[in-house]
Known about the structure:
The protein is mostly helical and about 130 residues long. It has helices spanning about 1-15, 30-45, 60-70, 75-85, 95-105, 125-134. The N and C termini lie far apart (about 35 Å).
Amino acid sequence: MIYNRLILIIITPFLFSCSQEETLVPAPVGQRAVLEELAEAYEKIARQVEGNPRQLPPEERLRFVRFVFKEAGYDYQATLRAMAASPLDPMDTLQRDLAELLLLPHRAGGWVKPESVYPESDLAAIDRLESVFF
């Protein structure tokens, strides 16, 4: 319980640093520059978390990944849904890398059932990415 509070205390400033009127968009799929932005955001936010973000509990990993997308200027949920609705190529490493980040909340640190992590409205998108890339 204390660990969860510590994570929230660490990450809360990121919530307030973004304008409430800021409109975030889905990250474009298959673009190296976008993955590089997300990687930079991942590293920046990972420095604010004690330990390895991949070892956080699944719900905390979901929050972490949402913050990564927000830091890079993108919306996690919109990206998840847009990617699942787009034509996908399981051999495209850029698409696979983005899918890996999107699915990190339930795949890292030991696989857990997606329905225990994500809202029901996202499960179809999660299933689509799982079936194409993993």
